[in-house]
Amino acid sequence: MSLLDENKRLEQADKQYIWHPFTQMKEWIEDVPIIITEGKDCFIKDIYGKWYIDGVSSLWVNIFGHRKKELDDTLKAQVDKISHSTLLGLSNVPAIEYAEKLINLIQKLYSKDKSKNNLPDKKLLSKVFYSDNGSTSVEVALKMAFQYWQHKGAIEKTAFVSLKNAYHGDTIGAVSVGGIDIFHKTFEPLLFKTYKAPSPYCYRCELDLKYPSCNLSCASKLEEIFYKYSSNIAAFIIEPLVQAAGGMIVSPPGYLKAVYDLCKKYNILMIADEIATGFGRTGKMFACEHENVLPDIMCLSKGITGGYMPLAVTLSTEEIYDAFLGDFKDLKTFFHGHSYTGNPLACAIAIKVLDLFDKEKVLKNVIDNVEILELWLNEIEKFNHVGNVRNCGMMAGVELVRDKKTKEPYAWEEKMGWKVVLKAREKGVFLRPLGNVIVIMPPLTITGQNLRQMLKVISEAILDVCKD
User: Fold this and answer.
1) pLDDT tens digits for range 288-301
2) What is the pLDDT of residues 351-387, one digit of tens each?
């Protein structure tokens, strides 16, 4: 069989056997799929030998680029020891060592916040509960918060609060606290009730306010919910600083700290969903650091293994952990777990990821790249059909509009975001939009040269597609 025939066979087999996520398969099977065979640095190569800049870090997970030697070697070394053993009734060395390393890092990063906020040790994140992806880490957090209050005797605290435009995953609990109709509306009959507060979406603020003059009225609306229902609310869940899947919506300065203070005021647990924002994406290791926020529960995944293995953690404070302690007969056990919980391969790589952050000064590279990114964002904001640009570190969104003055959006069915990214793919940059928002999230270690090339292609694609 010739190489061309084999490629055609793969394309047909993909269409025949695979059901792709977040994909209208009728359109997929009418098109030619991009099938990846190889990766190197910030590039991925398809079966025809064409290379693309990976502008979305393989769905926001790839921090160091592809085929990172240190991660490759770590994976191979761990395979020679053991690839998996359960945490149900056993433990394993990489799971222990990663939990210790992660907690020590977080407590070091937040030590200044502890003194500033005068928090006792039991209020610091100190316990690691393993799972295997972002959705499951959120499920763990929701169940943990719910059961915590049951053990504390506050049995009426069963509700949750989240934001409009929120995305916390695709399992039922995570969808229940989500706020994106196009993803979540279909499943409404399956969901538990959640109070929804306004999104800090300054460009399209439903409160008719505009950043930077925003006076945090979105936080005031959240307080109205807390004031009315606090006796029934178990926890508030938030993507700190950036609502990623909602369209790279960046909250105004002070918002995160304001809602954190409200949680403390009304005795409501705060869950920080740092699945997308964690591990350097915002310019700090964790987004909560920017505003000295110490959540009660934190969810981490995506960049945790640099894109090598599925892994997630849900971090809790000692105070929450202590509420689950008791005799066997008390049934205070947290009855939750997964087959691949604490997988040694994933944990070994996660340890190496933290080592590389320190060794290679990754956050310094992020700061340098943010300067390049923000200069470019300032330039393209002048384009006729770019309504708004926004970023927090290396998480950026470019919102396309039909009318710049009125902010009139393109109709969803026009697929303008998709048309732009398909044009960029022709020019060697792989992207995925969120509706009419072009998402920019390359590997954190992308070189300045490759970053500039990627941004140049995006500019050209916008000008080619969005014509008056």
Assistant:
1) 999 999 999 999 99
2) 999 999 999 999 999 999 999 999 999 999 999 999 9
What does the DSSP assignment read for 400-419? Answer: EEEETTTTEEPPGGG-HHHH
Q: Which amino acid is at 81?
A: K
Quote the pTM value: 0.95
DSSP codes joined into one string, 168-192? --SSHHHHHT---HHHHGGGGGGSP
Q: Could you tell me if 285 and 358 are in contact, meaning their C-beta atoms sit under 8 angstroms apart? A: no
Identity at 106, one-letter amino acid code = I
Residue range 34-64+361-465 forms a domain whose CATH class is: alpha beta
- Residue 116 scores a pLDDT above 60: no
| 44 SS3 class | strand
CATH code for the structural domain at 77-359: 3.40.640.10
Angstrom distance (rounded) from CA 433 to CA 438? 5
Q: What is the pLDDT of residue 211?
A: 45
The tokens describing 408, both together, are 């009139």
Q: Where are the domains of the chain?
A: 34-64+361-465, 77-359
- Secondary-structure breakdown of the chain: helix, strand, coil percentages, each rounded to the nearest 5: 45, 20, 40
Q: What residues contact 344, with CB distance under 8 A and at least 6 apart?
A: 78, 81, 82, 83, 84, 85, 92, 93, 94, 95
What's the number of CA atoms in the CB half-sphere (13 Å) around residue 289? 21
Q: Do you know the residue count of the chain? A: 468
Beta sheet of 36-40, edge-to-edge order: 36-40, 43-46, 51-54, 429-430
Rg of the chain on CA atoms, in Å: 22
d(CA 445, CA 70): 14
Mean residue pLDDT of the chain comes to: 94
The contacts of residue 454 (CB under 8 Å, 6+ apart) are 53, 55, 429, 440, 442, 446
- Residue 446 Cα distances to 54, 67, 135, 278, angstroms: 10, 13, 27, 18
Q: What is the largest CA-CA distance in the chain?
A: 71
Strands 386-392, 395-403: pairing is antiparallel
Question: Could you tell me the two tokens for 166?
Answer: 């929120």
250-263: per-residue pLDDT in tens?
999 999 999 999 99
Neighbouring C-beta atoms of residue 195, cutoff 10 Å: 17
Cα atoms in the 13 Å half-sphere on the side-chain side of 324: 16
